[in-house]
Amino acid sequence: MPSVLQQLREMTTVVADTGDFDAIRQFAPEECTTNPSLVLAAFSDESAQDLIAKELDTSRAAGKTAEEASQTLTVAIGAELTTLVPGRVSTEVDARLSFDTDASVARARDIIADYAARGIAKDRVLIKLASTWEGIRAAEILQDEGIDCNLTLLFSMAQAVACADAGSYLISPFVGRITDWYKKADGVDSYAPDEDPGVKSVRSIYNYYKANGINTVVMGASFRNTDQIKALAGCDNLTISPKLLTELENDQGDLPRVLSPDSVEPVSPLVMTEQAFRWDMNENAMATEKLAEGIRNFDKDYKRMVAMVAERL
Fold this sequence. Notes:
The longest helix is centred in the C-terminal third of the chain and has 28 residues, at 285-312. It is built from 14 helices and eight strands. The protein has a single domain (4-312), classed as Aldolase class I (TIM Barrel). The protein is globular and about 60 Å long. The chain has helices at residues 4-9, 21-27, 36-42, 49-61, 66-81, 101-117, 133-144, 157-165, 175-186, 197-211, 226-230, 242-250, 274-283, 285-312; strands at 13-16, 31-34, 89-92, 125-130, 149-154, 170-173, 217-220, 237-240. By secondary structure, the protein is an alpha/beta fold.
């Protein structure tokens, strides 16, 4: 019998939640991502040292600041990743811009221009933005320009509906972080897969999208264990860490399909104005807390990345 990972690939696009070159070569995912956390990890990756040194030498010669060099290094790593996967590489807009639509759009355009200067077309890139109201509005502008976006840090149906209304190419609902919040709130150690709040959230979003003919790709993210992944088998995309990819590859069990566009329940479309969005987020303590926490943590990693680049410069 094929491994669970092989079975999963038959029904879901598998994305590597890593920027580790060796791991990507090993698991051969369709797509992958890069962000400040993964760039930081690249500094400890032997296979990335030549690329990092070359890129920082170029930045030094051009008189770039540490922040400018960090931004171009992120794109350089993303460009290298495009040689390892056939699909898209997601590249993140700075978390500190999450509440500034215009600045997010400008940064996204710079990222696309940097990729283009390296010979990478925009159809190989996804611009990653936090699912704030302002981030979603930035995605709407960029999508109209033909720049596809990945809306991340998504924890609620309100965010999912707003992203769909904006024409976002892809959303990344964070399964594990939702589960973490509810485990603490409920005082429990675990949930059965079908009762897992993170799993249930993604299933609900998937059903809403498919029932209403929404083309936005649903990519489950932030998994804590393989049971969560198996419970979402058939989701459009799933982004999975190397550790969990290894577990799935070594699992020889049967993997039944759970999600399919052919078996969804009817659900009426929602109207998501800015007022409705902000009120829904205000009422959803989990989504509000995890979104804010995620932005803060991404920004911490961004600052650490800039500091590390400054040392090397």
